[in-house]
Every structure is written in structure tokens, then in C-alpha cells.
Amino acid sequence: MNDSLSFKIYTAVAALPSDWDSLSDGTIFLTTAYLKLLEASAPENMRCHFIGIFKENALAGIALSQWLNLSELESFGDRDKCLKNKIRNFVFKNFASNVLFIGNNMLTGQNAFAFSDSIAQAEGLIVLKDAAAEIKKNLKKEGFRTHLMVWKDFTATQAAAFKIPEFREYYEFQTQPNMVFDIRKEWFTFENYVETLLKKYRDQYKRARKKAEGITKRKLTLEEIIQYNPIINKLYLTVAGNAPFNTFYLPENHFVDFKRLLHDKFLFYGYFNEGSLIGFNTLIKNGDDIDTYFLGYDDECQREKMLYLNMLYDMIAYSVNKGFSRIIFARTALEIKSSVGAKPVKMSGFIKHNYPFLNLFMSKFFNYFEPQTIWQERNPFKD
After folding, report:
1. Which of 14, 157, 222, 349 maximizes the CB count within 10 A of its CB?
2. Cα separation, 20 vs 64, whole angstroms
3. What DSSP element (H or E) covers 239?
4. How far is it, in rounded angstroms, from Cα 164 to Cα 122?
5. Is the pTM of this model over 0.90?
6. Which helix (H) or strand (E) holds 349?
7. Which among 265, 302, 300, 279 has a CA at the least distance from the CA of 218?
8. Given this model, what pLDDT does residue 245 score?
9. Distance, CA of 129 to CA of 149 (rounded, Å)
10. Candidates 3.30.1050, 1.10.3470, 1.20.58, 3.40.630; correct CATH number of 5-175+347-369?
11. Could you tell me which CATH class the domain 179-345 is placed in?
């Protein structure tokens, strides 16, 4: 490690350097405002650490780590009940349940770290690697072991920085891509977007809107989120339970805390049928981007009203009308997101097992437990 570089590990946002936000690199997810949210409302099986990198006592880098204990989860996801899923869950609980992420496991994209221009990328990564080792050692002293070290999520360009000797033992992996929707400069209104769709996809849009007749949507205030919180959690858990795999579940007051701490940067939309809340989606304003966050819905209403597809159109409508540049749709539901115009961006991660022998077989283990997703990319636009 460069002798002029050092690191410090923090467990409380209040202790962070006063100039922390100046290095957040334009993303809300490394700012103290967002990190306070993690303090207040992280999943129960998660412990967060914040890392400051210093060059001759001046802050030169910031990073986030999350340690998760998967063995605390009652269920990883209820959708797949096959033998392979049971074997996978057994292996995870016994050999991979304690995971230290450098990055944010609740989001998609490079929300792990940011460096100032005063240090090279490779230098910063080497210091962060030492900091991660220190966090792992401190957790062990507290009685928390770590099976896996994971760095996530990086585009091909970002991943190239990890091609240094210090990361030789890590296995580079790819999971589902990040679905990113680029908003064209000639789209001034949502109607401009609809006009660029091929007839097949305009018909899909019209059919979805017709199915949703009778559904009303409105932006909820903090007081309303508190009022509807029990049903919000029920709807969220319906969607989470349908996922093939979960590494955490959000705590009950998660969305309440989000609205309370992020104010108008966090948007919560409720969908109502005959006065009853049947679904919701959430958006985060992140500079020129809109990041989609968690959502929930009643399964029966979703199928009958094409609720999820209508939510996607609503997210696009808001983002186009408000002049944002991109929508980060994240992972899952790749084909339906593709059908509205999102494009896949390949993401890499780097993983290493604590036991050297098991680490030798990481590629085989990973490919077995995380098989390639088969899906068909769509292009809904005329050009």
C-alpha cells in the first residue's frame, strides 16, 4: 500500500468526516443522507461499515460495506421449491451464509466507492482491500465469521480496474444485467415516447392501460405511508416471496424512514382499487437518473390489471416529463422491462471464499447455483 495512503473504518454516520459528501461522485447512494437511512432502516441481518481513505490526512476516497448473515433468514424465497433449490439453500446456510459486500446489496450498479483525483483507481482499490480485511478481522473478534467477500456491481470498463495482482484470487462473475432505460433528447413528453413505439408495442401499451381502468394512482405523503404501512409491508412481502432468492427482507418501517429522511428525493406511489391499496412502487431521484426501488402488489390484481407493466409505463412517464436522462430499472423481469425500451448492461462482480480449498472451485459452484438467465431481448422502437 502507498505509504501516504491510509484508511479509517466508521460504524456511525455522525462520525464521518465533514467533507464526506464532496466525494460522493454525484450519486445519492454514497451521501450521508442515504447512509443515515441505512443506519435507521437496514435489514435486520445486515451490518454496515463506512470507509474513509486518506492521502496525507486529506479525505481521498469513500466506500460502503455491508455484512449479511443469510442464516438469519427464515426463507430465501418461496417461488422455486425444487430439489436443486433446497440443495442451494442448504449450501448457502452452511458454507456461504456470512457475506461481506464492498458495495450495496440493496441496489444495482457501482454504489461501492468513489475516489478523488488525487489517487489512482488501482491505489484506491488496494487500500479498500486492506480495509475490507480489517472489517472482516473486527467482525471475527465480535464472533461473526465471514465466508465470502464480494465486490459488486461493475460495468466492463469499471471491472477492468480489478485486473491487478492484488485481486488475482477473486473470481469474476456475471449475474443478471442491469436494465437501463435511456431517455431520448427528442422526448419532451410521455406522448413522444409512445409515438416512437412499433405498432405491436403501442398495442401492448393500450391494452395495459385499458386493463387498468378503475385503478387510481397517487403520490403518498409521509403521513399516508405511515397510515398504510401494514398493507404496504404485506404487498412488499408478496413480491419478495415470489422472488427465486432473497438475501434480506426490508424492516417494517423502511419506506417510512426513506420518506422521512430523503423527503422529495424519494417518491412513493400508491395504486388503489375501490379505495383499497393494491400496489405501490418507489423511485429515487439520483442526479440526472431515476433509480427504481422496491415495489409491491396484490398478486390477483397484478394479473388481472397488468399492474406491473402499468407501473413501468408510469415510471417512464414521470421520468420523461420531468426531464431525467435515464431510468435504472435494475435486475429481474428482464424481458418485460426490455419490452418497454430498457437495454441490458452487463455487470461484473468479484467473489472470494474464505477457505482457499473451496475458492479453487468457485467458478463451478457459482455457475451451478446461479445459472445463466434465458430471456429474449425486445426492441419496441421504430428505429
Report:
1. 349
2. 12
3. helix 229-242
4. 8
5. yes
6. strand 348-353
7. 279
8. 73
9. 10
10. 3.40.630
11. alpha beta
d(CA 296, CA 252): 13
Q: How far is CA 212 from CA 70, 76, 196, 269, 333, in A?
A: 38, 32, 22, 15, 20
Same CATH topology for 5-175+347-369 and 179-345: the answer is yes
Burial of 61 (0-12, 13-18, 19+ CB in 10 A): buried
Please tell me the predicted confidence (pLDDT) of residue 317. Answer: 98
DSSP code of residue 178: E
98, 88 Cβ separation under 8 angstroms: no
Q: Where are the domains of the chain?
A: 5-175+347-369, 179-345
What is the grid cell recorded at 122? 488501482
SS3 content of the chain, % helix, strand, coil (to 5): 40, 25, 30
Could you give the CA distance from residue 350 to residue 190 in angstroms, rounded to a whole number?
Answer: 39
Look at the alpha carbons of 112, 118, 122, 125 in this order and tell me if their dihedral is positive or negative. Answer: negative
Pairing of strands 98-102, 148-154: parallel
Contact at 8 Å (CB) between 284 and 266?
A: yes
Q: How far apart are CA 21 and CA 62, in angstroms?
A: 9
Chain centroid offset of residue 29 CA: 10
The amino acid sitting at 57 is: N
Mean pLDDT per 10-residue run, the chain (383 residues)?
86 97 92 95 95 96 95 55 59 72 94 96 96 96 92 95 96 92 97 98 98 97 98 96 83 96 97 97 97 96 96 98 97 95 96 85 72 86 92
- Three-state SS for 329? strand
Q: Could you give the angle at which helices 32-41 and 254-262 cross, rounded to 10 degrees?
A: 160
pLDDT at 165: 96
CA separation for the pair 197, 340 (Å, rounded): 9
Distance (Å, rounded) from C-alpha 351 to C-alpha 361?
A: 12
**Which positions ≥6 away from 8 have C-beta within 8 Å?**
51, 52, 54
The predicted structure's pLDDT at residue 77: 46
Grid cell for residue 357: 480449498
